Amino acid sequence: MQSVSELSSNSHPSNLDHITPIDFESIKEVPESFIWPLLSDYPSCNSADIEPVPSIDLCDPKATKLMRRACERSGVFQITNHGIPTRLLHKLESQVWRLFSLPTGQKLKTLRSPDGFTGYGLANHSSFYPKLLWSEGFTIFGSPVEHARQLWPQDYTNFCDVIEEYQKEMSKLSGRLTVLLLNSLGLTTDDLEWVGATGEINGARSALRLNSYPPCPEPTRAMGLAPHTDSSLFTVIYQNGVGWVTVRPVTGALVVNVGDILHIISNGRFVSSVHRAVVDRAQHRLSIAHFYGPPVNAQLSPAKKLVDPPDHPILYRTVTSQEYLAIKAKHFDKALALIRHA
Ligand SMILES: O=C(O)CCC(=O)C(=O)O
Ligand SMILES: [Fe+2]
């Protein structure tokens, strides 16, 4: 089986500038290479015409109905009563601070290789943009042990224990969300061959991306994370109480956004929304994104029950998850169009 790193390593040339960190704390003025023109054209949570992202209580009997509405309108919602213990979220946050507070030289020991997927470095999609990002990132796929040992040779188990506990909790929550999201489309777990009866995905592909957005002297000109859609089925994001583009944070809530794969399965009904991260003048923002998706050999196609021409013709051809990830790695925002029926 091909690993995600092999899949993501495709032919787009990786630009080392995109993973070279700068000393954000000492910079008083944003260098030209970090200034994004036309940034004000993108929406932000301060825009008056932006609908607030709904907050959904997972135990509410109306949860699936509310999810459907949110997924059809914007592809993003927040969840409460999600079952992830608050003490775990706080432990996770402090481990992520600990990682990003390490001296640069230490973090660079785990620098992601130009064609790699895990370790210290910005999201792969940043290489599709000419400007640099006001952020640092770290991606974990599978066990964190190898990198944690390089970061803290004497004391790596604390980090690993917390990450592993979070990965377990996230996979339970992801199973629960899979059932709810399928139900919200009028589907059951029987409608997708790679989903088990309780929503678990055998051989699920998941990854954690830790993002750090330091305070920025010119937040209206710099970009935290460049616009993109996630390639996942869906992504669950924990953030340390500071806003996320159009999302006004609700205490204790997690943000869920629809990924490209759920968009394909829903035959285009659910929006895989383009999102980005903003930066702030005073606050240092952290986010931890958990990407969840089917195994690489899973066949992806619109669910049969959602194909009903002429109103709902089939929008996408069948691809394996592996094929889709390779197309996305090479063609980025054109990927969905490339698998769309004419
Ligand atoms: O920092 C955020 O809230 C967004 C993170 C995100 O979109 C990603 O890591 O794909
Ligand atoms: Fe994302």
Please describe the structure with a list of short key phrases separated by commas or semicolons.
9 helices; disordered N terminus; 16% strand; alpha+beta; binds fe (ii) ion; single chain; globular; two-stranded antiparallel ribbon; eight-stranded mixed sheet; binds 2-oxoglutaric acid; Jelly Rolls; 342 residues
Question: What can you tell me about this protein's structure?
Answer:
The chain is of the alpha+beta class and 342 residues long. Helix 2 (63-73) links the parallel strand 1 and strand 2. It starts with a helix and ends with a helix. The protein has one domain (46-339): Sandwich (Jelly Rolls), CATH 2.60.120.330. Helix 2 crosses helix 6 (157-184) and helix 3 (86-100) crosses helix 6 (157-184). The protein contains nine helices and twelve strands. Strands 1-2-8-7-10-5-4-3 form an eight-stranded mixed beta sheet. A two-stranded antiparallel ribbon has the order 6-9. The structure holds 2-oxoglutaric acid and fe (ii) ion (FE2). Fe (ii) ion binds next to loops.
Question: What is shown here, in short?
Answer:
By secondary structure, the chain is of the alpha+beta class. 27% of the residues lie in helices and 16% in strands.
* CATH-derived topology: Jelly Rolls
Principal-axis shape: globular
How many independent structural domains? 1
Our measurement of the CA-to-CA distance between the termini, rounded to an integer number of angstroms, reads 31 Å
Low-confidence segments, given as residue ranges, are 1-17
Q: Which sheet architecture does the biggest sheet show? A: 8 strands, mixed
Reported CATH architecture: Sandwich
Fraction in beta strands: 15-25%
The portion of residues assigned to helices is: 25-40%
Q: Write the CATH homologous superfamily.
A: B-lactam Antibiotic, Isopenicillin N Synthase, Chain
Mean pLDDT: 89
> Which small compounds were modeled alongside the protein?
2-oxoglutaric acid, fe (ii) ion
Give the beta-strand count: 12
CATH class: Mainly Beta
